[in-house]
Structures are given as structure tokens and as C-alpha cells.
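Hello, quick one for you while I still have it in my head. Could you read through the record and tell me how the C-alpha cells relate to the sequence? No rush at all, and the record is pasted right below.
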Amino acid sequence: MPEGPEIRRTADALQEQIGGRRLDGVWFAFPELASQAASLSGREVTTVDSWGKALLIRFDDDRVLYSHNQLYGVWKYHDEEREPDTKRSLRARLTAQGRSASLYSASDISLWQADRLEEHPFLARLGPDLLTHDVSIEAVIERLEMTRFKRRALGGLLLDQALFAGIGNYLRSEILFFARLSYRQRPMDLTTAQRKHLARTMLEVIECAYCQKGTTNRDDWSKAARRQGEKRQQWRFAVFQRDGLPCHACTTLIERTNVASRRLYYCPRCQGKGE
């Protein structure tokens, strides 16, 4: 499933396709939305942003179209006259000045007033988005030190969307590696310097994944890995999906385990086991 950086790039693409334009065509597959389609015609798409794995299309009348791609949803961008070549089921289409954005296969779509958006049952459970909400290092540290989070092992905590929205499986492994921390350690176990380093690493890794289209590895390490014949799904990461391969930093073999029912990758020398 795409993580925060991938959804943020989808938001960017939607913004490029229909942002700043007035809608002249709106269609929804679901009856509860179809009845409101006509009222969106003529409205301007002011901003498209993301919150974790949710997309938010904002209109100039203070309404917001919420959508979550889940496992199979996908947005396609096309000219109004040219239908995308796909067998997926169309769920929503927004057209502005001859440019269309079509959502296929997703089922979690709803229309909200902007001032009530945080009442949404999914969004209400989310922490801040590290890409969208301009979160500082100090704010990250503050949340890590909260009573509800500080006693929990990092391996499970980083996947908790209540801490920060948008961190998924590959980001978790990469963050812990670059922070040189074990998945068993807890925020309360860390020194002040370690918590600050973790906070900075979280922001840097997710920004790197956003800017480099899912690549979080250091440039020199990824180039060396490509020369050695690693596949893209391996060289784009420092540790994720690299079990059995040597650590870029120390040559110890990367290991894989399961934490919170998800696979996690780590270097036992650089990160230790936290025991």
C-alpha cells in the first residue's frame, strides 16, 4: 500500500491537473455523492493536499472531497475527450477546462465541510502529517515524549498513525536504520540527543522519499548497489527488502523479522537488538 510520500505526490499530480480551475463536469458513482455532483459544477478547486494516506480536494465554497485509495484505488489524469485505457470501475470524475481526473476502484469517498473535516472517523484518529502539516523537530520530540507513546517500542509505534500519519512499512525500517536505533527501544529509553536525532531522521527520510519517488537510500550507496546488480526494489533502500545482503555501512548481513504483523528489516550491528 502506498505510504505518505506516494499519496502526497498523487496530491501534487491532482493539483497540477485540476487545481486552480473551475469544474465544468462532476460525476460520482455512489448515490449519496451523485446527488451533490451538480452543486460542485462551477466551483474552483483551490488546493489538493494529503493527510497520511487520505487525499483532500478543497473547493472554493469550503467543501472538501475526501478519498482514500485503500489497496486498489488509483487516480488517472487525462484529457476530457480521451478515456483512460483501464478495466477498473470508475468511482469519481472531476473535469475542468478539458482536463479530467478520474478515480477508479476506491470505495471510501465522501464530501465534507472544511470546518468539520476533523470529525471524519478516519482523520480524527490521525496524528499530524510530516509532509503536509509543517511539523518541526521540536513538535516530533514532543509527541514522542507524550505518555501515550513514550513507553511503546519503536517497531510498533512508528506504524501507529495516531503518532504521525503516513509512515508505513518501508519508512519504518529506513527511519530506524538511519537513526541507528533498534525496533525494541522505546522513546523513554533514549537519551535527549537520541530523541532529537530520531525526530530529525523521521523528517529527513520522509522528505527524501517524497522528493526521490520512494528512494530513501544514500546516493553513493544506491550507486554501489546498482553496480553490484541489486534490483531497484533493493538499491532504493538502505535496509528494507535487503535481508541477506550486506549493510552499506558495516557489511553485516541485513536481517528480517516481523513486528506488529509487518516485516521489518534492520542491521544487527548498526542498530543492535535493543535488549
